[in-house]
Amino acid sequence: MEKKSILIVDDDKSLLTSLAQILTNEGYQVDTADTGQKAVEKSKTQFYHLLLLDIKLPDMEGTQLLTAIKDTTPKMVKIIITGYPSLDNAIEAVNKNADGYVIKPIDINKLLDTIKKHLRQQDETRKYSEEKVKDFIETRAKELGSL
Asked: What is the CATH number of the domain that holds 33?
């Protein structure tokens, strides 16, 4: 089974280090960035299954990062972390295609469950898409073969 890759974006160095260590111990391949711009640059050259990002970054809002960051295939799961929960933030995060919303202080078990759930859904979606493509190709080959 492939090792899932996670990019954590947060300007709180101690939280960044702690989360990276916990997720590495859980078997994930982890990369970190302390600004939105660094995250955008890393996403251009690296493939990540999941993005875990703080809503307040020094150079941009996390919701702006959701828009700026390049999605990878299969669709990157994006989970917002915030110490500033508000209905407006939650609505904006959902409108910008965040897949989850976690409030600080972080309950690690809840976060791990959220990550596992979303990565499992991502795998199921990819598997379903691959099956649809395979079925299409097989059907198309039969159609072309009967011409």
From this structure: 3.40.50.2300
